What we know:
mainly alpha, 65% helix, Growth Hormone, Chain: A
Amino acid sequence: MPAQRADPKARSLLVVCAVFLHVVSPRPDLPAAAVSINQTFNLARHMQLNSTVLVHTYLIHQGSPFSDPDFGAQRIGYEGVPSADMPFLTWCNLSDYDRLSQNYKAYKKFFEFLVLVRNDQMELNSDKEDLVEMLKTTQLHIRGLINNLTSIMEALEFPVARTEDTLTLQATGTNNFEKKVRGYVVCLKYKEWIDRTVKDFARLAKKFPLPSFSP
């Protein structure tokens, strides 16, 4: 039996349908992203206030020279601890994806470092429960921030950046003074990063305003 040829009109209809389906393909969930961005902005501002208290509390519990009034080691660093420093124009021109992914990568590392710092302080200052509790609370806030960043990137259909554990068991074998220095650097750089995160999300919140709902 000879094969039937497709009606030209039917073929045209299939092409039109295919084009229509392409046009209405799923788009990023912008309302969900806007809600998460504004929630994260509020969380970051809360964390910013706590970060100042954390640095101060950390220093006064470490003894001299950390607790000395003239202590000023703001420029010291520690390998692997993220730095928020960046040229202003470079920061202004970051894409939404770069802004979000850089925050995500930084806080994944800070969470890991804060586990180490908290363990160090439980050994060095086991009687300083306020500091140990602050470090624990900071970890919980960072975990919430990471979850929010993941939700925002998924809503905007951005790939979530891959990160790897960078700390090894060798990091636990250093002397007590270096542990104190490392903890100070982690707390200080965390404060600097959360200051930047607040600025990042102030920009994102303007770009993705909360949707208005009619009553």
